[in-house]
Amino acid sequence: MGDQVKLIATPQSLPCCRVEWALKLKEVDYEYIEEDLRNKSAFLLESNPIHKKVPVLLHAGKPIVESLVILEYIEETWKDKYPLLSDDPHERAMARFWAKFGDEKCVVGAFGAAWLTEGEEKNKAIESAQESLAFLEKQIEGKKYFGGEQIGFLDLAVGWIPHWLKALEEVGEMKVLDPGRFPSLHEWGQNFLEIPLIKNSLPPREKVVEYFNAGRSYKRSLEAANKP
Amino acid sequence: MAEVKLFRAWSSPFPLRIVWALEVKGIEYDMIYEDLSNKSSMLLQYNPVYKKVPVLLHKGKPISESLVILEYIEETWKSKTPSLLPGDPYQRAMARFWAKFGDDKILPLIWEAFIKQGKDQEEALIAAHENLKYLEVELRGKKFLGGETVGFADLTFGWLANLVSVFEEIAGVTLIDHEKFPLLLTWMKNFMDAPKIRETWPPRDKLINHFRALRETLIAKEPK
């Protein structure tokens, strides 16, 4: 077994992709174990008994879960190649703060808005998601990437925006990342997607749309099943 | 005047984690108390995103979110012992995992169980216990989650040590019982006895009055 690295993941899942990008940037060899989330494997349930989710990184047999925790682990374990975080503690704190914000406010906000049917509640949810994105717009203004001249921790953490948010907009029949309102974020997104390592590992958009739709139907069927 | 300032509210558990970290590491700091019902313009300027405490100000630069602040403290004052995180990357990942788990799964459910009544309270308590079981298992053979001394994850769960008994007294319900969670209760006692912990936490009677009033307000707002 030695130092073998395995990743239990689903190709269209955004937290899984951010982990893959980190592994690829650091040129870490890993075995990809694809998981069907509607029929979870015993291996997944054993490796992540608490959350039962992907991604799970296994290194020398030991599992690490929660994508941002995994990113920190990758950064600290494979120190020699491609630093994801600055050496400066304040900059590191900013990257961590905005990554957490991205997940707690932007991801939650965008998905929340997507699942609502057309109407005032949906419009309010879209506006709220946009207010969150406005903070990221301010952060990227005047910079090529969040990491500076090259992508880093925060770029990977919010890297879902140019591709997954587009799919979510399609599924949710909404427009969130309006280039007029978020010119810097939009430009960053375009630059991010052009990076060969990123471009070559993106799941096809139709597959992401399908994945989101399947997730929504599955959730609704669970809710319907739970109704008295 | 210290080069470190901490914005806090006296009753909130999140800034208390930072107080503990600074005290345990012997870092000098000034405390600035906020009235959360009347936030200062300074707080709003330093934490425009969440408008919350804690905010750590170091050499004029603000950092928010307690777990981010704890990592910042650990990295900035590297020579100040004890370390809050171990050296090994896997152990560090575990500490970060448990800290996140506590904040995402335990704290909100215990809070729900405290502020709700009847069936809602029962359901919140069942869910809290489901999650606390994992923590109980993790504590096997350990004095603290960090090992022999209080660490990152312990500081994150520290609110259990001072607030659970306060919540239990006010709500008249047992949130963490001896039979189901003996190791957790032992951990709570060890934590409270650790250096700098109990001496820096708010007085119990003040906490009781504060949270009792807060609970009554929240219950009154509930739709009938």
UniProtKB/TrEMBL annotation, chain A:
<dbReference type="GO" id="GO:0004364">
    <property type="term" value="F:glutathione transferase activity"/>
</dbReference>
<dbReference type="InterPro" id="IPR010987">
    <property type="entry name" value="Glutathione-S-Trfase_C-like"/>
</dbReference>
<dbReference type="InterPro" id="IPR040079">
    <property type="entry name" value="Glutathione_S-Trfase"/>
</dbReference>
<dbReference type="InterPro" id="IPR004045">
    <property type="entry name" value="Glutathione_S-Trfase_N"/>
</dbReference>
<keyword id="KW-0963">Cytoplasm</keyword>
<dbReference type="InterPro" id="IPR045074">
    <property type="entry name" value="GST_C_Tau"/>
</dbReference>
<keyword id="KW-0808">Transferase</keyword>
<feature type="domain" description="GST C-terminal">
    <location>
        <begin position="88"/>
        <end position="211"/>
    </location>
</feature>
<dbReference type="GO" id="GO:0006749">
    <property type="term" value="P:glutathione metabolic process"/>
</dbReference>
<dbReference type="GO" id="GO:0005829">
    <property type="term" value="C:cytosol"/>
</dbReference>
<dbReference type="InterPro" id="IPR045073">
    <property type="entry name" value="Omega/Tau-like"/>
</dbReference>
<feature type="domain" description="GST N-terminal">
    <location>
        <begin position="3"/>
        <end position="82"/>
    </location>
</feature>
<comment type="similarity">
    <text>Belongs to the GST superfamily.</text>
</comment>
<comment type="function">
    <text>Is involved in the conjugation of reduced glutathione to a wide number of exogenous and endogenous hydrophobic electrophiles.</text>
</comment>
<protein>
    <recommendedName>
        <fullName>Glutathione S-transferase</fullName>
        <ecNumber>2.5.1.18</ecNumber>
    </recommendedName>
</protein>
<dbReference type="Pfam" id="PF13410">
    <property type="entry name" value="GST_C_2"/>
</dbReference>
<dbReference type="Pfam" id="PF02798">
    <property type="entry name" value="GST_N"/>
</dbReference>
TrEMBL record, chain B:
<protein>
    <recommendedName>
        <fullName>glutathione transferase</fullName>
        <ecNumber>2.5.1.18</ecNumber>
    </recommendedName>
</protein>
<dbReference type="GO" id="GO:0004364">
    <property type="term" value="F:glutathione transferase activity"/>
</dbReference>
<dbReference type="GO" id="GO:0006749">
    <property type="term" value="P:glutathione metabolic process"/>
</dbReference>
<keyword id="KW-0808">Transferase</keyword>
<dbReference type="InterPro" id="IPR036249">
    <property type="entry name" value="Thioredoxin-like_sf"/>
</dbReference>
<dbReference type="InterPro" id="IPR004046">
    <property type="entry name" value="GST_C"/>
</dbReference>
<comment type="similarity">
    <text>Belongs to the GST superfamily.</text>
</comment>
<dbReference type="Pfam" id="PF02798">
    <property type="entry name" value="GST_N"/>
</dbReference>
<dbReference type="InterPro" id="IPR036282">
    <property type="entry name" value="Glutathione-S-Trfase_C_sf"/>
</dbReference>
<dbReference type="InterPro" id="IPR045074">
    <property type="entry name" value="GST_C_Tau"/>
</dbReference>
<dbReference type="GO" id="GO:0005737">
    <property type="term" value="C:cytoplasm"/>
</dbReference>
<dbReference type="Pfam" id="PF00043">
    <property type="entry name" value="GST_C"/>
</dbReference>
<feature type="domain" description="GST N-terminal">
    <location>
        <begin position="2"/>
        <end position="81"/>
    </location>
</feature>
<dbReference type="InterPro" id="IPR045073">
    <property type="entry name" value="Omega/Tau-like"/>
</dbReference>
<dbReference type="InterPro" id="IPR004045">
    <property type="entry name" value="Glutathione_S-Trfase_N"/>
</dbReference>
<feature type="domain" description="GST C-terminal">
    <location>
        <begin position="88"/>
        <end position="224"/>
    </location>
</feature>
<dbReference type="InterPro" id="IPR010987">
    <property type="entry name" value="Glutathione-S-Trfase_C-like"/>
</dbReference>
<dbReference type="InterPro" id="IPR040079">
    <property type="entry name" value="Glutathione_S-Trfase"/>
</dbReference>
